[in-house]
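To: structure desk
From: M.T.
Subject: fold request, one chain
Message: Could you run this one when you get a chance? Sequence is below, nothing fancy, just the single chain.
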Amino acid sequence: MVFINRVSQFTGDCTQSDSALRQHLKTTYGCDTRRMSRLTLLALSGALPLSVPQDCSVYMASSFASPSKFNTVFDALLYENSAMPFDFIANMHNAAVFHVARLLNTRGNTVFVYANQDSRSWTQPLLCALSDLLGGQCRNALVGWAHEYHPVPDASPQEGSHWLWLSRDAVPNPLASCRITADEHSPDSTAAGSLKDYYWQAVTDALAQLQQGQIVRLRSALDQKIIWLPETA
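Reply: Done. Structure tokens follow.
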């Protein structure tokens, strides 16, 4: 049995400046976030409200590393034939999940997974965490999805991060239990998000249903169903 113990979410939009996000993290959590990408700032803003055990592994999904930091690095390479080393490091795909684990002081594995709008894609970090929990590789897992706005036509200005703390042992008042079953004929609880929103809206909808006490059914990449069963159901 795997339990969903807590949910943490941070939702903003692209009008909020990097400096405002840095100030929020410094004031609220005492974090020094210099040289971190915007995607990392968004991931930390959602993850740091949670208090998880040190043996927790961290799994995070995103559709890109950091679009804004990538543009900075690309422009420097294109026009100056050189990029700042710290910008290059900050834009590595696993930088955000590394900083989440470091600032939460966890000692488990850190995993970054690519995600797009198809539920078979964005459920991958959840499936990885469940596999490790059920297989005895870890006892606690923090699973997150982070999204940074990318200026493409009709893109939604929303961005932020969603996080779930899962464990094999329930803490008092867990939100739900979570299990993997063979594929069922019942429909998925969330439709695939539109291309412009990537996976973001689908994750948002699934977590809203969970917090409303509804049963959530998600289809994984292996044609299995991941079911969140609220404790009140």
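Reply (cont.): Helices lie at 18-29, 38-47, 67-80, 85-90, 95-104, 119-122, 124-134, 200-211. Let me know if you need anything else for the meeting.
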